[in-house]
Design a protein that fits this description.
This protein has 189 residues and is of the alpha/beta class. It has five helices and seven strands; from the N terminus they run E-H-E-H-E-H-E-E-E-E-H-H. The longest helix is centred in the first third of the chain and has 13 residues. Bound molecules: inosinic acid.
Length: 189
Amino acid sequence: MKLLIASNNQHKIEEIKAVLCGKFDDISTLNDENIDCAPEENGQTFLENALIKARAIAKHTDKVVLADDTGLCVNALGGRPGVHSARYADDHNSTANRRKLLGELENATDRSAYFKTVVVLLYPDGKVVTGEGEVHGRIVEKEQGDNGFGYDSIFYSDELGKTFAEATTTEKLTVSHRSRALRDLFSKL
Ligand code: IMP
């Protein structure tokens, strides 16, 4: 089966490929296929956004499309930024997004939070298989670690005992929202 990962985020692609290892004959990305398509992700849920992405990309390929949508949900903020995580402060500006979140939590005593990912596998005949995963932890007071991307440097994983940006990719994948969502999806195939 030939799979197209509906992303241009190199970190995400590396994580997804590590989990998919050996499960598909051929894995490509939007860059590999020269697909320039970034639909507005204006759904109300992670699933809606993942489907918006997958269906828009599917118009450009005959391959099976894998799309994911992720968000960081902070309990003291009633689950925000959630589905708005990418454009929380400023569109796809992770530095501004992290800074805004740390500012909003300046006086918070409850810093608990979780990442949630929904993944969608969309076949050329329209069939859809989904998976979801979460990882729980808390938002640290200041950035820690240089690895990863997005909110990784301010998310402390309870299971790893460090921030995702202090973890290697392999360590992150043992507990991450994305690897759990992918494993959930593959358990249904
Ligand atoms: P999207 O799923 O690519 O739309 O991501 C939504 C937002 O969450 C973006 O700001 C990403 O940088 C961030 N994000 C997605 N996955 C991760 C992750 O694994 N770690 C940290 N931030 C992430």
